[in-house]
Fold each of these.
Amino acid sequence: MLHRYPRRVAIIMLALTLCVAVFPLWGPAVFGDQVDFIQEKLTLMVILALFTMSLDLLVGIVGLVSLGHALFFGVGAYTLALASPEYSAASLWWMLPLVIAVAAITAFVVGLLVIRTKGIFFIMSTLAFGQMFFYLISTSQFAGGTDGLFIMFRPSVTFGETTLLDLSNSQTFFYFCLGLLIVGYLFMRWLTRSYFGQVLDGIHDNEHRMQALGYATSGYKLVAFVIAGVLAAIAGMLAAMQYGFANPVQLGWHTSGEVLMMLILGGMGTIFGPILGAFAYEILLYVYEHLTVHWPILMGLTIIASVLVLPRGIAGLIIAPPWNRKKTPVAKEQAAESVIPPNSIQRNEG
Amino acid sequence: MLTPLHNHNTSSLVNIMKHALKNTVLASLIGTSLVASAMATASEHPVKLGLMLPYSGTYSALGEAITNGLKLAIKEQDGQLGGRDVEYVRLDSEADPSQAPQNMSRLVKGDDVDFVIGPVHSGVAMGMLRMAKKTGAITIIPNAGLEAATNQLCMPNVFRTSHSMWQDSYPMGKVAYERGHRKVVTITWDYAAGKEDVAGFKEAFTKAGGEIVEQIWVPFPSTEFQSYLSQIASIDPDAVYTFFAGGGGVSFVRDYAAAGLKESIPLLGSGFLTEGNLQALGEAGEGVMTTLHYADTLQSEANRNFVSAYQEAYGETPDAYAVHGYDTGKMLAQALYSVKGDTENKEALIEALSNVHLDSPRGPISFSDSHHPIQNIYLREIQDGKQEVVDVAYEQLEVPDDACKM
Amino acid sequence: MDLAFFGVQLLNGLQYGLLLFLIASGLTLIFGIMGIINLAHGAMYMIGAYLVYDLNLRLGNFWLAIVVAVPIAVALGLIIERLFLDTLYKRDHLYQVLLTFGLILVINEVQRIIWGGDVHSVAVPSPFDTSLQLTSNLQYSVYRLFLMGVCLALAAVIYWVIRHTRLGIIIRAGAVDRDMVEGLGINVRTLFTLIFSAGVALTAFAGMIAAPLSTIAPGMGDSILITCFVVVVIGGIGSIKGAFWGAILIGMAETFGSVLIPSLASMVIYLIMAAVLLVKPRGLFA
């Protein structure tokens, strides 16, 4: 996707990144004793941002709406939990490749089956595969069943005898996650602007045309599915590392629904939108939970409202602010093209 | 009501605002004197209880009953613990294990509570306990029955005021054999709580000489029982032992009765099969026998007083969940009294908590080395829509918790 | 497995399958004709059960409660369609998924505010509150037989309406090409409102009629939702015939799966679905 966004997008995102990155400098002054907790929350948001971004590759870029993406989040968490030794730290040097490999294989096998389906069927079959893994883990002896598993030590990052990064330190872990998010973002940008990304964009616009041009579209979609799965698994691994805990709920369909919500709230197909979405969703949830015990109503209404009035999400607001739309019709058009799937009426598959 | 209950539902958000104001604006403009004076009153600050219970969703009724019981116990202490006022920080645990660690972290690091009370759900307990291990926060579990909490995980800062799955089902194994049942089929959901529950029954029943002829595992949380009932009928055992909680329990007992099995094959269960659901069970529940550490019909003075006080305060009959909350409050009151309200010295506080002896509505309670209640288990039978106590199934039963010696 | 046992299980599977069909039919109707994914389907099922529980208490008669509850369900469907779905027909499925996901949160919480978190039940109504003796020690509730009859009758009615009435012709035409039908002077807008309300009512009715056999508890619709999706995907989205046979297949698979291969019981329906998708990615009857 070669859409050029207005300069303010870059400015806002850089400013926000900087703001988050220097949190240890300003956090204590604003949050006092709560700074540790807020930093933990911020770390979680960074992790969820990576997770949401991985889903954007499927939903926003290729146009495949997955309702089972939490499966890969869970694969990352459980690979870490099951492969970690009980009384010592694993090494990240083999843990990360292992997580990537397991996620890639899982995504490849699941992808082979679900890529054959389209539209509603794709949504339904990803949902069902997600639930299949959910039950597999929930009833398993080896994975701790419904109770889940503990990870007692975060993986170590060493070179020879020297510790390069002490991930058990919460500040170091925060920067580690932030670093991975930035790397992930740059990777996604590079990917979507590459030749491969242009083919994906073409599939999104009109798959039949791409097939007619001789592209094996299924292959491209499968590769995208695997990449998205691997990124989600890395996020899942980080989430499990943060709290030292893996639970089947992490791969249930409610998690998949929530991450979709973060995506739409942020603005899909924009790569930077999902990051904003994850942060916005978590902040809203936090505020609502403090307002009332009936917070699910507020959350539900927010979801409904954002679907109805803000389909392009926060990213849409930044790319084409309402007060700016008449002055720059070109930007609006580009924004619309990048955020809304053009062939969005996919009725009567049945 | 003697004194109004001190009940700030303090929101962390407000706290953050306060901090922001206090630390930046006030400190710089007015100077440090105000902050210093705020510090001086710190010792008279209320005791902060962090409640991490379900207030929305499927388990909300349990969360509310526990909270009601807890508040009743503290109200009976004039709303104070160890001479200090009490402040509640309520947090909706939603029965969602994946949220548990961050919720726990919010209470401990964000709201700086003195005690965390929760949860209801065993999966949530795992997530909480992971953080309890990390932070050392004193945690009192008022319901979740997972064995690991006081056994494999074994933490000095973790207490339980309820039960373990094993503790409630083990006595039934003995009772079943004594009542002449030799071949029993067990049926439960294929999840952690069900496995631990049935394991307790099986241990006692086979030790006594009985035989488990079939163990049926129903996928959690399915309530489609017809094919299993047909299977039970064709096996035709002496009795069936079961554990299903909440709506599942009601469904199973009703389907079991509708299949006509109740008359020919007695239904035995762990108490949570029927607890709190008598009305929904209706006629189908009559004659079902369960073992549990409480029954609202217990005739002790402590229980009669508790039941009438609870009915007066909340307009409904308390169940075991309300007692868990009530005993948690009593436990805190006794421990904080003995340390004179000092919550800073954690070691002394933990020592005081583990020495608590209660004359609870459910009978005498003390705490084992693993911080698990030692308590009576009652054999109960539903008669005329009431949970009647038939017998004490096991007196002062201690959970072995072999992996945990503190 | 002896013959009597096999026969009993066959009956169990058939009954469960028919009930699944009743629950899934509303979903597939809305899917097939309007192209709308309704994740709040399970929540409607729950609302139906709670409505009949509440009205049964107030009116003291189960059948009367159903008569009153069905129009309420229709009205609910009408309101949801007009308020929320109207703008979504031309948009991607993604938005329908999210909007109905939001609806689940709202409906579940509203249920809790109105009826609380306790577990309830509805007594089996007369004249069906008797049982048949199946084997020496196993009885079978007559209400289950009645339920099977209701499901079969409804299946026949839906089939007849779609195949043999003018409304059915319009519905089928609307599913294929909405603009064309509109061009013929038929108000598709009204048609969709009608279909959605009917779908919601059908689902809520399933919750009502199944209430005496189920337990009424918060979140009771969530677990049934996914099973319904599997039924609809296997049968072919939008196909009533597919939903019927898909439901029977799943009913049988769950019943016999739980007895014959208990270790895989929770996954057996997903394995079947995966197999179907491998062979026919659009479902068996698409």
Amino acid sequence: MAAVKQTVEHVESLEKYKHGFVTDIEQDFAPKGLNADIVRFISAKKNEPEWMLAWRLDAFERWLAMDEPDWAKVSFPKIDYQDSYYYAAPKEKVGIKSLDEVDPDILETYKKLGIPLREQEVLAGVVGAPRYAVDAVFDSVSVVTTFKKELAQVGVIFCSMSEAIREHPELVKTYLGSVVPVSDNYFACLNAAVFSDGSFVYVPPGVRCPMELSTYFRINAENSGQFERTLIIADKGAYVSYLEGCTAPMRDENQLHAAVVELVTLDDAEIKYSTVQNWYPGDPETGRGGIYNFVTKRADCRGDRSKVSWTQVETGSAITWKYPSCILRGDGSSGEFYSIAITNGRQQADTGTKMIHLGKDTRSRIISKGISAGRSSNTYRGLVSAHPKATGARNFTQCDSLLIGKHCAAHTVPYIEARNGKAKFEHEATTTRLSEDQLFYVMQRGLSQEEAVQLLVNGFVKDVLQELPMEFAVEAQKLVAISLEGSVG
Amino acid sequence: MLKVENLHAVVDGKEILKGLSLEIPAGQVHAIMGPNGAGKSTLSYVLTGRDGYEVIEGSATLDGEDLLALAPDVRAARGVFLSFQYPLEIPGVPALTFIRTALNAQRRARGEDEVSAPAFLKLAREKAAALKIDFEMLKRALNVGFSGGEKKRMEILQMAMLSPRFLILDETDSGLDIDALRIVADGVNALRSPDRAMLVITHYQRLLDYIKPDRVHVLAGGRIVASGGPELAHELERGGYERYEQAA
């Protein structure tokens, strides 16, 4: 009860502060730093109902009492949480006015990705590009929500989280924080307090979502953190495939990206969630700049025979620290995790998954392909556990690491806990170095060194690439190539 | 076609080729025989541009063009093909994809159009059948789990598909039983033509019963120490390399 009382007090105190912020609401940045007033500012800016603000303030209180975790195999200077902006809405005067002002390297990347110029402008954040552009992309605000009407016809809700909080409060109240509790971990808790936007998807019972849903996230503003929050619910017998793409411009400062993604599947429902993450990885020589990608992604297979499949292609970020996981609660539910994590330059990645088998006859499958090049470090960390009641639980794990060059590192840290005698877990792991023999062989057949590396790497990651939706697979393949450019010789 | 003059090459700081000279005119097949460690494989790697095989003196030209100045992939596009003694496994890349990628890379480098998918498949079916390679096998990752004989046939298939001008066969007979040897040799012989030249590197005379050379050279101590007609191979089979090793 004490917690509730505290919350009430906070809501009351808010009334006093609110006025103080009336003028500030007009501005596009929240003041630098983090305190309860900033949390109120964000909530007010988004016209949130009071229950939402209370939720945020509660999270903020809890966050204050938490310590930043340090168990991952990554190292970075201590983050000063007061030296960042927690809300940045795009406004014309801070935007980029023409393509000429955009960093040529970024344009080059888009060109290589085959994104047409119009869309290129969108992704580069050019002001004056088509209207959907501003809605489409960046920083803290909004998501692409095209085809809304078509989706509404079959009852699928696809909108920004802010809109969902206003328009579908009952759904949000029921499911928000039900998979990743507010104080689950340090970064998830911070996200709960200051999350700015994200996507919301609800697929009603028996509906197979007629199209792939996708969101492009982009951090644009300087010194700003990005804290988006995504919630996807597949009701009984529903199916949806969701794609998430991420990009960010080059900055000398490190930017924090602490997102939370929650997936819920009820009986016989299925969610396929794919990510192609290409945040700015920092300077390959000095390691300056780049995104800290500290993300909590978790699925709750709440219903019997429900299924969640995570597929990720992680090529960007200075540091990636994430474990898209599945709680296999429903009997006969299944979880899959397919991952390609590429590190080059001075990037660090500590990523993997958790498959928590709670229900009977639950199944999980993990295929992880880690590629390290340059002076980077790439760690697979995964947990497979079976509860005493999860009889008949089965897991198959395959972790392959590929090393390119002599100065990179790959680590595999699997945790396996079987707490009943009727679970069957298999784990296979390999580490190989891209051999000079192979490279020469391929080059002798007419491929340049970079083409040869691409061919060999694409062969290495093929098992995972084929899990991606077609269009994304092509994009991912190109990304793999771009992120490994200059990694040999 | 190929002209090598006074070639000196160093591997790991050690001089392996010590003034090798060799000339193979278009339309001819030359065999190089020699004891282990004579520099046979080194010669094939130097001609194809492998890293770590450093030429410190001499020259190698193909139709007058300086080969040594070109990157390995450029040499391949110019028509230089090496059938490897130990073909490499390429996990996750189906043989068909591999060959098509290579063919198109070479064609692009020569300013030619990429080959269309139907034309490519038709050609692949034809060439695979001639080498008695099951077409289904070409859908598997190149050389992964293939037997020694299958790998060698796959090399010849690539050669037939890429249609090079100057071919090097490095110990192509090693690991082949007599039936496989015949199939491979037939494949190679089918590629003999007035505008192609071949260099056949082998330990044993056996292969040369099937692929008849115009000239035979003995490589020992990093140099060609004797040259002659096909009869030289028979002589070597009887007398061994000892005589030449002493000469070197």
